[in-house]
Amino acid sequence: MRTGLLIVLLSLAFWACSKSPKGDTEIFPEKSSLAKGADVSWITEQEKSGSKFYNSSGVQQDIFQILKSKGVNAIRLRVWVNPADGYCNTDDVLAKAQRASLAGMRLMVDFHYSDSWADPGKQTKPAAWASQNFADLKQSVYNHTFSVLTTLKNKGITPEWVQVGNETNDGMLWEDGKASKNMKNFADLISAGYDATKAIDSKIKVIVHISNGYDNSLFRWMFDGLKNNGAKWDVIGMSLYPTAADWESKNTSCLENMKDMVSRYGSEVMICEVGMPVSEAAACKSFVTDLLGKVKSLSGNKGLGVFYWEPQSYNSWKGYKLGAFDDTGKPTAAMDAFLN
Protein backbone atom coordinates (compact mmCIF):
# COMPACT_ATOMS: atom_id res chain seq x y z
CA MET A 1 0.00 0.00 0.00
CA ARG A 2 2.80 2.39 0.93
CA THR A 3 4.71 1.51 -2.21
CA GLY A 4 1.65 2.16 -4.38
CA LEU A 5 0.99 5.50 -2.68
CA LEU A 6 4.65 6.49 -3.10
CA ILE A 7 4.49 5.71 -6.83
CA VAL A 8 1.36 7.83 -7.21
CA LEU A 9 2.92 10.75 -5.34
CA LEU A 10 6.13 10.52 -7.35
CA SER A 11 4.13 10.41 -10.57
CA LEU A 12 2.16 13.50 -9.61
CA ALA A 13 5.34 15.30 -8.67
CA PHE A 14 6.94 14.42 -12.02
CA TRP A 15 3.82 15.58 -13.88
CA ALA A 16 3.81 18.92 -12.03
CA CYS A 17 7.49 19.54 -12.67
CA SER A 18 7.29 18.58 -16.33
CA LYS A 19 4.47 20.94 -17.24
CA SER A 20 5.72 23.02 -20.14
CA PRO A 21 5.39 26.81 -20.55
CA LYS A 22 4.06 25.99 -24.01
CA GLY A 23 0.81 24.68 -22.56
CA ASP A 24 -2.13 26.48 -21.03
CA THR A 25 -0.91 25.57 -17.57
CA GLU A 26 -0.27 29.22 -16.57
CA ILE A 27 3.12 28.07 -15.27
CA PHE A 28 6.32 29.58 -16.67
CA PRO A 29 9.15 27.55 -15.08
CA GLU A 30 11.89 29.58 -16.82
CA LYS A 31 10.51 33.01 -15.97
CA SER A 32 13.24 33.71 -13.42
CA SER A 33 15.94 33.45 -16.09
CA LEU A 34 17.00 36.29 -18.36
CA ALA A 35 15.06 36.44 -21.61
CA LYS A 36 17.42 36.39 -24.59
CA GLY A 37 15.02 37.10 -27.39
CA ALA A 38 14.45 37.75 -31.05
CA ASP A 39 11.54 39.34 -32.87
CA VAL A 40 11.13 37.19 -35.99
CA SER A 41 7.77 38.48 -37.21
CA TRP A 42 9.01 38.64 -40.83
CA ILE A 43 9.91 34.96 -40.92
CA THR A 44 6.84 33.55 -42.70
CA GLU A 45 7.03 36.23 -45.38
CA GLN A 46 10.75 35.66 -45.81
CA GLU A 47 10.29 31.92 -46.18
CA LYS A 48 7.48 32.42 -48.67
CA SER A 49 9.84 34.57 -50.75
CA GLY A 50 12.45 31.79 -50.78
CA SER A 51 14.80 32.90 -47.99
CA LYS A 52 16.78 30.08 -46.44
CA PHE A 53 18.78 30.07 -43.23
CA TYR A 54 22.03 28.37 -42.27
CA ASN A 55 23.86 27.74 -39.03
CA SER A 56 27.41 29.00 -38.48
CA SER A 57 28.76 25.87 -40.17
CA GLY A 58 26.73 26.54 -43.31
CA VAL A 59 24.17 23.79 -42.73
CA GLN A 60 20.61 24.74 -43.68
CA GLN A 61 18.29 24.62 -40.67
CA ASP A 62 14.99 25.96 -39.41
CA ILE A 63 15.40 29.51 -38.11
CA PHE A 64 14.12 28.61 -34.64
CA GLN A 65 16.73 25.85 -34.35
CA ILE A 66 19.50 28.24 -35.40
CA LEU A 67 18.41 30.91 -32.93
CA LYS A 68 18.13 28.41 -30.11
CA SER A 69 21.65 27.16 -30.84
CA LYS A 70 22.81 30.77 -30.38
CA GLY A 71 21.28 31.03 -26.91
CA VAL A 72 17.98 32.65 -27.87
CA ASN A 73 15.24 31.42 -25.52
CA ALA A 74 12.35 33.77 -26.31
CA ILE A 75 10.46 34.97 -29.39
CA ARG A 76 8.55 38.22 -29.96
CA LEU A 77 5.75 38.45 -32.53
CA ARG A 78 3.87 41.56 -33.67
CA VAL A 79 0.13 41.57 -34.34
CA TRP A 80 -1.70 43.79 -36.79
CA VAL A 81 -5.50 44.00 -36.84
CA ASN A 82 -6.29 43.55 -40.54
CA PRO A 83 -3.09 43.74 -42.62
CA ALA A 84 -3.62 43.93 -46.37
CA ASP A 85 -1.33 40.99 -47.17
CA GLY A 86 -2.32 38.84 -44.19
CA TYR A 87 1.14 38.74 -42.61
CA CYS A 88 1.10 39.41 -38.86
CA ASN A 89 -2.64 38.82 -38.61
CA THR A 90 -3.98 36.41 -36.00
CA ASP A 91 -3.54 33.25 -38.10
CA ASP A 92 0.01 34.18 -39.09
CA VAL A 93 0.93 34.95 -35.49
CA LEU A 94 -0.51 31.62 -34.37
CA ALA A 95 1.55 29.72 -36.97
CA LYS A 96 4.76 31.37 -35.77
CA ALA A 97 3.83 31.01 -32.09
CA GLN A 98 3.29 27.28 -32.59
CA ARG A 99 6.77 26.95 -34.06
CA ALA A 100 8.26 28.89 -31.16
CA SER A 101 6.34 26.73 -28.73
CA LEU A 102 7.56 23.51 -30.33
CA ALA A 103 11.10 24.86 -30.04
CA GLY A 104 10.56 25.33 -26.29
CA MET A 105 10.83 29.10 -26.46
CA ARG A 106 9.10 31.72 -24.35
CA LEU A 107 6.75 34.15 -26.10
CA MET A 108 6.03 37.87 -26.22
CA VAL A 109 3.05 39.15 -28.24
CA ASP A 110 3.35 42.74 -29.46
CA PHE A 111 0.02 44.43 -30.24
CA HIS A 112 0.37 47.39 -32.63
CA TYR A 113 -3.40 48.19 -32.71
CA SER A 114 -3.08 49.14 -36.35
CA ASP A 115 -3.38 47.47 -39.76
CA SER A 116 0.32 48.16 -40.34
CA TRP A 117 3.34 49.66 -38.57
CA ALA A 118 2.83 51.61 -35.37
CA ASP A 119 5.84 53.50 -34.04
CA PRO A 120 6.78 56.96 -32.67
CA GLY A 121 5.98 58.61 -35.99
CA LYS A 122 2.65 56.95 -36.73
CA GLN A 123 -0.10 55.33 -34.69
CA THR A 124 -2.85 54.89 -37.28
CA LYS A 125 -6.17 53.38 -36.26
CA PRO A 126 -7.23 50.18 -37.98
CA ALA A 127 -9.61 50.99 -40.81
CA ALA A 128 -12.41 49.10 -39.10
CA TRP A 129 -12.05 51.28 -35.98
CA ALA A 130 -11.55 54.64 -37.69
CA SER A 131 -15.02 56.06 -37.11
CA GLN A 132 -15.59 54.68 -33.62
CA ASN A 133 -16.22 56.92 -30.63
CA PHE A 134 -13.79 56.61 -27.74
CA ALA A 135 -15.90 54.19 -25.70
CA ASP A 136 -16.11 51.84 -28.69
CA LEU A 137 -12.41 52.29 -29.36
CA LYS A 138 -11.56 51.10 -25.85
CA GLN A 139 -13.85 48.12 -26.35
CA SER A 140 -12.16 47.32 -29.66
CA VAL A 141 -8.75 47.30 -27.95
CA TYR A 142 -10.12 44.92 -25.33
CA ASN A 143 -11.87 42.67 -27.85
CA HIS A 144 -8.94 42.44 -30.26
CA THR A 145 -6.46 41.69 -27.46
CA PHE A 146 -8.76 39.09 -25.92
CA SER A 147 -9.51 37.47 -29.29
CA VAL A 148 -5.89 37.03 -30.37
CA LEU A 149 -4.81 35.69 -26.98
CA THR A 150 -7.82 33.35 -26.87
CA THR A 151 -6.82 31.93 -30.26
CA LEU A 152 -3.37 31.19 -28.88
CA LYS A 153 -4.67 29.79 -25.61
CA ASN A 154 -7.06 27.47 -27.43
CA LYS A 155 -3.99 25.95 -29.10
CA GLY A 156 -2.21 25.53 -25.76
CA ILE A 157 -0.03 28.64 -26.01
CA THR A 158 0.06 31.26 -23.26
CA PRO A 159 2.54 34.11 -23.83
CA GLU A 160 4.68 35.19 -20.93
CA TRP A 161 4.51 38.87 -21.92
CA VAL A 162 2.04 41.01 -23.84
CA GLN A 163 2.95 44.41 -25.22
CA VAL A 164 -0.02 46.82 -25.24
CA GLY A 165 1.05 49.14 -28.05
CA ASN A 166 4.33 49.44 -29.92
CA GLU A 167 6.78 52.31 -29.34
CA THR A 168 3.99 54.49 -27.98
CA ASN A 169 6.16 57.56 -27.36
CA ASP A 170 3.10 59.77 -27.86
CA GLY A 171 0.34 57.27 -27.24
CA MET A 172 -1.54 55.19 -29.81
CA LEU A 173 -4.69 55.15 -31.94
CA TRP A 174 -4.26 58.79 -32.93
CA GLU A 175 -5.81 61.27 -32.52
CA ASP A 176 -7.99 59.93 -29.68
CA GLY A 177 -5.14 58.24 -27.84
CA LYS A 178 -2.40 60.78 -28.52
CA ALA A 179 -0.72 61.21 -25.15
CA SER A 180 0.42 64.80 -25.66
CA LYS A 181 -3.19 65.80 -26.34
CA ASN A 182 -5.06 63.50 -23.96
CA MET A 183 -2.99 61.37 -21.58
CA LYS A 184 -6.15 60.12 -19.87
CA ASN A 185 -7.40 58.61 -23.12
CA PHE A 186 -4.09 56.87 -23.67
CA ALA A 187 -4.09 55.57 -20.10
CA ASP A 188 -7.60 54.18 -20.60
CA LEU A 189 -6.55 52.40 -23.81
CA ILE A 190 -3.56 50.86 -22.03
CA SER A 191 -5.82 49.68 -19.23
CA ALA A 192 -8.23 48.13 -21.75
CA GLY A 193 -5.42 46.04 -23.18
CA TYR A 194 -4.18 45.22 -19.69
CA ASP A 195 -7.61 44.04 -18.54
CA ALA A 196 -8.10 41.87 -21.64
CA THR A 197 -4.70 40.26 -21.12
CA LYS A 198 -5.30 39.52 -17.45
CA ALA A 199 -8.70 38.04 -18.32
CA ILE A 200 -6.81 35.42 -20.32
CA ASP A 201 -4.22 34.72 -17.63
CA SER A 202 -3.39 36.88 -14.64
CA LYS A 203 0.24 35.73 -14.75
CA ILE A 204 0.94 37.29 -18.17
CA LYS A 205 3.03 40.42 -17.71
CA VAL A 206 1.80 43.52 -19.55
CA ILE A 207 4.40 45.79 -21.13
CA VAL A 208 4.10 49.46 -22.08
CA HIS A 209 6.81 50.09 -24.68
CA ILE A 210 8.45 53.30 -25.87
CA SER A 211 11.65 53.89 -27.82
CA ASN A 212 14.94 55.63 -26.98
CA GLY A 213 15.72 53.79 -23.77
CA TYR A 214 18.46 56.30 -23.00
CA ASP A 215 15.98 59.24 -22.76
CA ASN A 216 15.00 59.47 -19.11
CA SER A 217 12.95 62.65 -19.52
CA LEU A 218 10.75 60.97 -22.13
CA PHE A 219 10.16 57.97 -19.89
CA ARG A 220 9.39 60.09 -16.83
CA TRP A 221 6.92 62.19 -18.81
CA MET A 222 5.16 59.12 -20.17
CA PHE A 223 4.99 56.98 -17.06
CA ASP A 224 4.24 59.86 -14.69
CA GLY A 225 1.36 60.69 -17.01
CA LEU A 226 0.11 57.12 -17.19
CA LYS A 227 0.40 56.63 -13.42
CA ASN A 228 -1.41 59.89 -12.69
CA ASN A 229 -4.24 58.79 -14.99
CA GLY A 230 -4.72 55.34 -13.52
CA ALA A 231 -3.07 53.20 -16.20
CA LYS A 232 -2.04 49.66 -15.31
CA TRP A 233 1.13 47.88 -16.43
CA ASP A 234 3.71 45.40 -15.13
CA VAL A 235 6.77 46.07 -17.26
CA ILE A 236 8.35 49.14 -18.85
CA GLY A 237 9.62 48.27 -22.32
CA MET A 238 12.39 50.07 -24.17
CA SER A 239 14.00 50.14 -27.63
CA LEU A 240 17.68 50.89 -28.18
CA TYR A 241 19.33 51.29 -31.61
CA PRO A 242 22.85 52.71 -31.19
CA THR A 243 25.82 52.73 -33.55
CA ALA A 244 29.33 51.39 -33.15
CA ALA A 245 30.39 54.93 -32.23
CA ASP A 246 27.90 55.61 -29.44
CA TRP A 247 26.68 52.30 -28.01
CA GLU A 248 28.72 52.59 -24.83
CA SER A 249 27.29 55.99 -23.90
CA LYS A 250 23.77 54.89 -24.91
CA ASN A 251 24.05 51.76 -22.77
CA THR A 252 25.26 53.81 -19.80
CA SER A 253 22.34 56.21 -20.13
CA CYS A 254 19.93 53.31 -20.61
CA LEU A 255 21.14 51.67 -17.41
CA GLU A 256 20.55 54.87 -15.44
CA ASN A 257 17.09 55.14 -16.98
CA MET A 258 16.30 51.52 -16.13
CA LYS A 259 17.39 52.06 -12.54
CA ASP A 260 15.16 55.12 -12.34
CA MET A 261 12.15 53.23 -13.72
CA VAL A 262 12.64 50.52 -11.10
CA SER A 263 12.97 52.95 -8.20
CA ARG A 264 10.38 55.48 -9.38
CA TYR A 265 7.57 53.08 -10.33
CA GLY A 266 8.61 49.70 -8.92
CA SER A 267 8.34 48.32 -12.46
CA GLU A 268 10.25 45.54 -14.12
CA VAL A 269 12.11 46.50 -17.30
CA MET A 270 12.43 44.76 -20.66
CA ILE A 271 14.56 45.81 -23.63
CA CYS A 272 12.01 44.87 -26.31
CA GLU A 273 14.05 45.90 -29.35
CA VAL A 274 17.71 46.32 -30.16
CA GLY A 275 19.62 46.46 -33.43
CA MET A 276 22.80 47.75 -35.05
CA PRO A 277 24.00 47.83 -38.67
CA VAL A 278 24.88 44.32 -39.84
CA SER A 279 28.20 45.74 -41.04
CA GLU A 280 29.09 46.45 -37.40
CA ALA A 281 28.71 42.87 -36.16
CA ALA A 282 31.68 42.88 -33.80
CA ALA A 283 30.56 46.12 -32.17
CA CYS A 284 27.01 44.78 -32.02
CA LYS A 285 28.19 41.72 -30.12
CA SER A 286 29.91 43.98 -27.59
CA PHE A 287 26.82 46.21 -27.36
CA VAL A 288 24.36 43.35 -26.73
CA THR A 289 26.71 41.54 -24.34
CA ASP A 290 27.13 44.70 -22.30
CA LEU A 291 23.41 45.48 -22.35
CA LEU A 292 22.49 41.99 -21.19
CA GLY A 293 24.88 42.44 -18.28
CA LYS A 294 23.40 45.81 -17.38
CA VAL A 295 19.83 44.44 -17.51
CA LYS A 296 20.84 41.51 -15.32
CA SER A 297 22.46 43.88 -12.80
CA LEU A 298 19.20 45.63 -11.89
CA SER A 299 18.21 45.23 -8.26
CA GLY A 300 15.54 42.74 -7.29
CA ASN A 301 15.83 40.88 -10.62
CA LYS A 302 13.78 43.67 -12.19
CA GLY A 303 15.62 43.40 -15.51
CA LEU A 304 13.82 40.79 -17.60
CA GLY A 305 15.80 40.54 -20.83
CA VAL A 306 16.80 41.80 -24.27
CA PHE A 307 15.20 41.13 -27.69
CA TYR A 308 16.97 41.65 -31.03
CA TRP A 309 14.62 43.01 -33.69
CA GLU A 310 14.44 40.80 -36.82
CA PRO A 311 18.02 39.46 -36.59
CA GLN A 312 17.26 36.90 -39.32
CA SER A 313 16.68 39.58 -41.96
CA TYR A 314 19.52 39.61 -44.47
CA ASN A 315 20.40 40.97 -47.91
CA SER A 316 18.72 44.20 -46.79
CA TRP A 317 15.32 42.52 -46.57
CA LYS A 318 12.72 45.25 -47.17
CA GLY A 319 15.54 47.77 -46.88
CA TYR A 320 16.33 46.82 -43.27
CA LYS A 321 20.07 46.80 -42.60
CA LEU A 322 20.19 46.24 -38.86
CA GLY A 323 19.90 42.45 -38.87
CA ALA A 324 22.39 39.97 -37.44
CA PHE A 325 22.64 37.47 -40.34
CA ASP A 326 25.09 37.93 -43.20
CA ASP A 327 24.29 37.93 -46.91
CA THR A 328 24.64 34.13 -47.07
CA GLY A 329 21.90 33.64 -44.46
CA LYS A 330 24.22 32.74 -41.58
CA PRO A 331 24.32 34.43 -38.14
CA THR A 332 27.00 37.05 -37.64
CA ALA A 333 29.19 37.41 -34.57
CA ALA A 334 26.49 39.68 -33.12
CA MET A 335 24.34 36.65 -32.29
CA ASP A 336 27.13 35.18 -30.15
CA ALA A 337 26.23 37.78 -27.50
CA PHE A 338 23.27 35.60 -26.50
CA LEU A 339 25.52 32.63 -25.75
CA ASN A 340 26.93 34.34 -22.65
Automatic annotation (TrEMBL):
Pfam families, sorted: Glyco_hydro_53
Enzyme class: hydrolase
GO biological process, one term: pectin catabolic process
The enzyme's E.C. designation: 3.2.1.89
Family: Belongs to the glycosyl hydrolase 53 family.
Transmembrane parts of this sequence: none
UniProt protein name: Arabinogalactan endo-beta-1,4-galactanase
GO molecular function ontology, one term from the record: arabinogalactan endo-1,4-beta-galactosidase activity
Alphabetical list of InterPro entries matching this protein: GH, Glyco_hydro_53
Keywords, sorted A to Z: Glycosidase, Hydrolase
Reactions catalysed, as given in the entry: The enzyme specifically hydrolyzes (1->4)-beta-D-galactosidic linkages in type I arabinogalactans
PANTHER family (UniProt xref): ARABINOGALACTAN ENDO-BETA-1,4-GALACTANASE A (PTHR34983:SF1)
Phylogenetic placement of the source organism: Bacteria, Pseudomonadati, Bacteroidota, Sphingobacteriia, Sphingobacteriales
